[in-house]
Design brief:
Shape: globular
CATH class: Mainly Beta
CATH topology: Pectate Lyase C-like
Number of helices: 5
Bound molecules: 2-acetamido-2-deoxy-beta-D-glucopyranose
Structural class: mainly beta
Helix content: 10-25%
Largest sheet: 14 strands, parallel
Number of strands: 26
Number of domains: 1
Radius of gyration: 19 Å
Distance between the termini: 55 Å
CATH architecture: 3 Solenoid
């Protein structure tokens, strides 16, 4: 009994989540405590609303949602998720499942797992205050292997969000404010994501943050805190920043980070020569942040198993919803040009992809 107690106490002291509490095998970071829903519900229709639709599926809490249909769901209004749900986009038959045209919102909800979902807001959106994915004031939420593109306000809006993970996901080609993600409150974990062709906010994080194994391509500003007050800690480990045709100042890989911030930075690389070859150099000066000699978060070093170069290869191979569709193939191919190709856009149509730039699934 005494022995058992000792073991439990030491796990808690290390900050390790117990195995049974993981959202799914391999889940990492602060959102990995999400447990989602358990009541099976199958999406059987690509219609915007009605029985068996995605909108119907997420309308009640407690559901563990799978998909018997594949393709795009054209949203005619925002979709509001319930608490305590799991969206298993990866269960859709090939070529997978996506939503387009409006915001998916988990605003003020809790305990949500979303995997394998494509969210492509785009110019069909009629409200320029909406984002591709909104988790404002949400808690205990994890997005994994999702593909977010053509966001209007932000790609991911997470102001007031607590216990968040976004992992293995594409956050690319925002078209309105041309912003990636905006998170406040936290704590938050951004792991192995691919951020492509945004003006800023990759992410903007006013929170204690883990930022590990991300690849940021063709940025105008990368990781930012915005110098607008707030005292936070940042573990920034083994990320790869790569400039592209739209990058105006390579040194804006870290942007507006004042001396109210503390950062542990290690193994980050910046490839700023646009020569089509991956050959970055060390980039571990995080603005004016106070240097931490060890991570603020107990799990950061164990999450950071890949070097920046290994993370680049892994992200290129695995990031986003699977199978990779026309939009994600286009996005990844711009990154693989390593400086030669990429632009920050105002309308998805300008990608030249089918279906007015939304591509087809
Ligand atoms: C939810 O559904 C997925 C896909 O069928 C399954 O793998 C998972 O075990 C289910 N989770 C729960 C908690 O029921
Ligand atoms: C966030 O996670 C911690 C455990 O890591 C938990 O104690 C806390 O209650 C969670 N916050 C919310 C709002 O659920
Ligand atoms: C640092 O934080 C303090 C208090 O939150 C604030 O008054 C000050 O302006 C901040 N400094 C900077 C450089 O942002």
């Amino acid at each position: 009994m005494y022995q058992l107690k000792r073991v439990v106490i030491s796990l808690v002291a290390l900050g390790l989540p117990s195995v049974s509490a993981l959202a799914f095998p391999g889940a990492v970071g602060f959102g990995s405590i999400a447990t989602g829903g358990t009541t099976p519900f199958v999406v059987t229709s690509l219609a915007d609303s009605g029985t068996g639709t995605f909108r119907d599926a997420v309308s009640e809490s407690g559901r563990n949602i799978t998909f018997a249909v594949s393709g795009y769901i054209v949203l005619e209004s925002p979709v509001s998720l319930s608490s305590d749900i799991t969206i298993n986009g990866q269960t859709a038959p090939s070529p997978g499942i996506g939503v387009m045209g409006r915001e998916v919102s988990a605003s003020s909800k809790t305990n949500i797992i979303i995997r394998g979902l494509r969210m492509r807001q785009g110019s069909l959106e009629t409200d320029d205050g909406k984002s591709a994915f909104n988790m404002g004031d949400a808690s205990n939420i994890i997005l994994d292997h999702c593909s977010v593109a053509y966001g209007v306000f932000d790609s991911v809006d997470a102001v007031g969000a607590v216990n968040v993970t976004v992992s293995n996901s594409i956050i690319a080609l925002p078209i309105g404010q041309q912003f990636g993600a905006h998170l406040e409150t936290g704590p938050a974990t951004w792991y192995a994501n691919l951020w492509v062709s945004a003006h800023n906010r990759q992410p903007l994080t006013k929170a204690n943050t883990q930022y590990i194994n991300n690849v940021v391509y063709n940025y105008q500003a990368g990781y930012t805190v915005a110098n607008t007050g707030g005292v936070f800690s940042h573990d920034i480990i083994n990320n790869y920043f790569i400039t592209g045709p739209s990058t105006t100042s390579p040194s804006d890989d870290y942007f507006q980070i004042d001396d109210n911030q503390s950062a542990f930075a290690s193994g980050n690389l910046l490839d700023s020569n646009k020569d089509g070859v991956l050959n970055g150099v060390a980039a571990n000066t995080i603005g004016s942040a106070i240097i931490l000699s060890k991570p603020w978060a107990s799990t950061s070093l164990s999450i950071a198993t890949l070097t920046a170069a290994e993370a680049y290869a892994s992200v290129i191979a695995n990031v986003g919803a699977s199978p990779r569709d026309e939009v994600d193939t286009f996005i990844v191919s711009t990154v693989e040009s390593l400086g030669k190709v990429g632009s920050i856009i105002t309308n998805q149509d300008s990608t030249g992809l089918s279906n007015n730039g939304y591509g087809t699934l």
